[in-house]
Write a structure and sequence with these properties.
With 179 residues, the chain is α+β, with helices and mostly antiparallel strands. It folds into 2 domains: 102 residues, Peroxidase, domain 1; 72 residues, no CATH class. 63% of the residues lie in helices and 16% in strands. It has 8 helices and 4 strands, in the order H-H-H-H-H-H-E-H-E-E-E-H. It has a 4-stranded mixed sheet.
Length: 179
């Protein structure tokens, strides 16, 4: 698993450097997202993962499916991953590319878990507070997790800010049983 993550990181970083040198980060982001979505199709995924289908056939079909909408660079990167037997890693590579792009733009991804969907006013307040804490722009990724009971838990990178009712109850239980 660590080897696959290393490969994913290398492919994403190589693509990122090429896109930056071409001053085409936005285009690469769009094209890689289109290719990732294309790979989510069950038939396409089965085709590129099938070991008996020659690479030339896979390449021709992928080029036809991508059409004129996808630039050559992102398509070549995905085709390289397919040729090297890593089609399952394409989605992770595109996600890592997006993370590199966010870092380049000074944006932090905040994964917010809450017991209930956040109202717009709360979402804006959470975003403003996180922006103040990190000093970066914030991109929210929201997930509803009823097991939290109430409150929110936020993960930014390797930092976890847990203000959920469940974690407060667990801390209270730990203090009461420690006595």
């Amino acid at each position: 698993m660590a080897r696959q993550q290393t490969a994913v990181r290398r492919y994403a970083e190589a693509g990122f450097e090429i896109a930056r040198s071409e001053q085409a980060l936005d285009a690469w982001e769009r094209d890689l997202a289109m290719l990732r979505d294309l790979m989510k199709n069950r038939e396409v995924r089965a085709l590129v993962q099938h070991p008996a289908i020659p690479y030339a056939t896979k390449e021709r079909i992928m080029e036809r499916l991508a059409g004129k909408d996808v630039a050559a660079g992102p398509l070549r990167l995905v085709l390289l991953m397919i040729r090297r037997g890593r089609p399952r890693a394409i989605e992770a590579m595109v996600n890592h590319f997006a993370a590199l792009l966010r870092r380049e733009r000074g944006i932090s991804l905040a994964q917010v878990r809450s017991a209930f969907p956040l109202p717009d006013a709360q979402r804006e307040a959470v975003t403003a507070r996180l922006r103040e804490m990190t000093g970066t722009e914030i991109e929210l990724s929201e997930h509803v997790d009823p097991s939290l009971i109430g409150g929110i838990a936020v993960r930014i990178g390797d930092q976890l800010y847990d203000a959920s009712v469940r974690s407060r109850l667990e801390r209270l239980r730990a203090r009461l049983t420690a006595v």
